[in-house]
Amino acid sequence: MPAKDPNGKTQHAPAEGDTAPAEDTVVISVSPQDELEECRRQLAAETEAKLRILAESENFKKRLAKEKEEFLRYAGESVIADMLPVLDNIDLALAHGRGNEACRNLLMGVEMTRKAFSETLSRHGLEEFGSVGEAFNPEFHEALGALSIRDLPEETVAQVVQKGFRLRGRLVRPAKVMINRGG
Questions:
Q1: Which of 54, 77, 78, 134 has its CA at a distance of 20 to 30 angstroms from the CA of residue 35?
Q2: Model pTM above 0.70
Q3: What tens digit of pLDDT does each residue of 62-111 get?
Q4: What is the full DSSP assignment across 151-169?
Q5: Do residues 149 and 180 lie in contact, with contact meaning Cβ atoms separated by under 8 Å?
Q6: φ, ψ of residue 157 in degrees (nearest 5)
Q7: How far is it, in rounded angstroms, from Cα 95 to Cα 145?
Q8: Bridge partners, 128 (sequence order)
Q9: Geometric angle at alpha carbon 117, from 88 and 131, rounded to 5°
Q10: How far, in Å, CA of 165 to CA of 126, rounded?
């Protein structure tokens, strides 16, 4: 049965097997070989992108693990740095008490305390440095001035004003020293 359009005209459907002429149809002929090559290119591009993302993910995991290890390795650095003035005060007490015979027993107790404190810090990776005669190294020593001592080579530590400390190789506090010049 013929259908009517909105204008009231009768429209006939094309008979079976008849095709309506296409007005703007463009037929592109792609060979199966070309289509296969295009699929292979797309697959290779997607595989490469996924491998790149996987590599970035692995690198991120490694970087995160390294940062965590570094954090844990130096986590106590600020606490240890805050304890260094206490160690300095113990050293000052020992230096002032050594000449006083009345303080001998007290001095022994302070020396044992200093030794136990130093050993505890050493077990946690703290290394004390700075001694007379060692070569001056600006990375680890802070020069406060110069002295002239004949028995020491030039550019060596002539006097240690304050000991320096490293935590597992990382500088916590430089040694404050006087350098030998013109000896």
A1: 54
A2: no
A3: 999 999 988 887 788 888 999 999 999 999 999 988 888 888 889 999 99
A4: TS-TTBEEEEEE-EEEETT
A5: yes
A6: -75, 120
A7: 22
A8: 165
A9: 50
A10: 7
